[in-house]
Every structure is written in C-alpha cells, then in structure tokens.
Amino acid sequence: MWMAPGIGVKRWLALFVACTLLGAVGVLHFTWTGPLHFVATRWILWVNALVSPEYMPLYTGGAAIMILALTGAFWSIMMLNRSVLRGTGTAPETAVDMLYERRNLARGPHVVTLGGGTGMSNLLSGLRAHTGNTTAIVTVSDDGGSSGRLREALDMVAPGDLTDCYAALSDSPVMARLLLHRFQRGEGIEGHTFGNLLLATLSEEQGGLREAMKDIHEVLRIRGKVYPATTTPSTLVARLSDGRLVRGESRLAGQVGAASIQEVTLDPPDLPTLPEVTAAIHNAEQIVLGPGSLYTSIIPALLVPGIARAIRESTAPLVYVASLMTEPGETDELTLEGHVQAITRHLGRTPDCVLVNNAMLPADVTERYAAEGAHLLTLHGASRDLRARCVLHPLLQPGQARHDPHALAQALLQLAPRRTVG
Asked: Which of 83, 143, 211, 236 has the most Cβ atoms closer than 10 angstroms to its Cβ?
C-alpha cells in the first residue's frame, strides 16, 4: 500500500536508495584514497576470505553486504516510523490508508456550498468522501428552537445549522454523534444540542463567533471548512403577494396562507461577512446552492452583500440543486422555473446548471407528501432556456423523498471542471 499511486512515497524512497548508494561510493573512495587506506585493505581482504572463488566471484561478498545494509536501513526507518506514529496516537496499521485518503482528498475540487438545514448537511456528508476542499457557507437567520433561544440569550447568530454541518464533515463518528446530542433534561440546557452549546461557549469566550472560527476548526478537525454567512444576528423578513410582511423564519410557513412569497430580505440589510468566506468563493471551482428550503435556507445566504457580490464576480460554474418537493407554506405552487427565477431575482445571477432528480418516488411516498400539500418538482412546463441548463440524475435515497448524499456528491463532481494535478 505504501507504493500506491499518489501517496508521495515512491519518489522519496528512490531518492533514499540513490543517496545511500552514492554515500557508499563516497565512503569507499575516502577510505581507499585517504589515511584509512589500510582499513579498507583489511576490510576487503576479510570479505574476500569469506568467499570461495571456486564457487562464486569475489564481488558477491560486497553485494551481499550492500543488500544487508539496505535491508537494515529500511527496517530501521520502518521502526522509526512506527514509533513516531504511536507517539502521535495514529495506529501504524491504518496510517497508510489515512495518508492515501488525505492525499487524494487534498487533490479534490474546491467546492463552495451555500444553504442550510438538513439538505446542506446531507450534501456535505457525501462530499467529504470525495474532496477535502469543501467550504460550507451556512445560513444563520433561524429564530426557532435551540438556535432561537441561544440567539436571544447571547445575541449571537443561530448555531443550529452550523452544528449540523460540522457533524457532517467530522472525521470522527464519535464527535459527530456528540455534536448532535440533544439534552432531554436539565434546567436551562433541555432541548439544546451539545454542538450548539459548544459554539455558544467558544463565541462567548472569544468575544464573538468571528474570533472563535479558528478555534472551532482546530477543535473539531473537520474535513473542510464551515463558516456562517454573517457573524451579525439578523432577522428574515418576507414580503407576501397580499402586501403583508412576515418577520422571522419560524413564523413564515404559518403566516403565508393563501398568499405567496414575493421577496425575502434580511434586517439589517448591510451585513458583514468573513474575509474567509469571500476568499473561498473567489477560489472556488464550483459553487453549489442547496439542496434546501428556497426562502429560508438558500436565499438568505445570498442576501449578504459580500457573498452576492463575490458570486456574481466568480467565474466558477454556479449549480442549483433543485429541491425534490415543494414545501407547504413556503413554495406551495412554485414551479421549478419559479425556484430558479427567485434565485436570479435575489442574487443577480442565474445558475449555470440546475441539477434535477429523475428517479421515480414510490407511489405511497408521493401520496403521503401530497396529503401534506407537497408535490414533486419536475420540468413540466419549463422553458427551453431552463431545460438547456438542467442536468438529470437519479438522486433519491431508496424509498425516501430525500437526496442520496453519495449520488448527489458524485453528480456534482461530474459537473465540476476537470483539473490537471501536477
């Protein structure tokens, strides 16, 4: 396995052998021509005495010693390597696989994803198996549940979706499980997840989430980066078709009624973003919107001025992962084309590609969602321009109305620009 392509060992092994042989020549020359000539003479005579010329040439003695020396050198390096690995807590038996995986992940495309909710964390859990260069930019305007309580108590951005993304990218199943653990009892902590409390603690200790981001990435050791769209608390405001304004993400679905959402904004509107966020967008080879709720997960991240400007300036392909179903109270009658138009309206750039599922849902699943007021998003009635932008893939988890993370990641990587790795 150490000789596997791409692991970066063979070149150094070849250099080691070449330098060893060169060193042997140097030692031979020094001892033969220098003041230690008599030592070299005695050494050669001693080796010759061990070889019977009638059975083999005299030089075989030197060859045997060279082989023994190289074998001993390799063995000592292996033992040194095992000692160092044990000292760092890495099992020598798994070190090769780990190194091979990390080398290949480091060569993966630079992908930036924007959104929130279960759709974002689901996508990240698939991407982490293919690239270590993922940057998740997470919507943080949620005002319900544990996130809403912490936001109100500590004047911080909503940490819930950040926690889900950290868990999805974690290299440790134990850490992922701990981050998502929700306390079922205890005054003051009941209903909170450990991950939310950890982010709140680091934010409080560092004087804000912006200052805490480096510590968070160091503590969690995730495969990629996760950043909030903004580090300033904000409120989602929706303007409905009947003229009403609805404030708060948690109130939106229950307030829309027979109306439809025309526009969403953030209050305050001029929100800052981290320089790491805009740098990731500028360096991205692919920018992915979704999957997730259109008006409460995807578009809010696009309303931060620095993010929207960076996406418009980027030359990377912009991919929108279409939702599988409409969402009652948010996108009830909105078609797939309506979803794309809403993104274009709020962002100022139309997605270059729309990734659409073409796998059939089981009839019982479709009926169950229909009873809740949700229906499948399809290309029915789509314009020629939208059809030209659409790429169809089977993206469903078997028997469920949700994206399969690995199928989704593979479909996105097929759309990513090809890179030549030196």
From this structure: 236
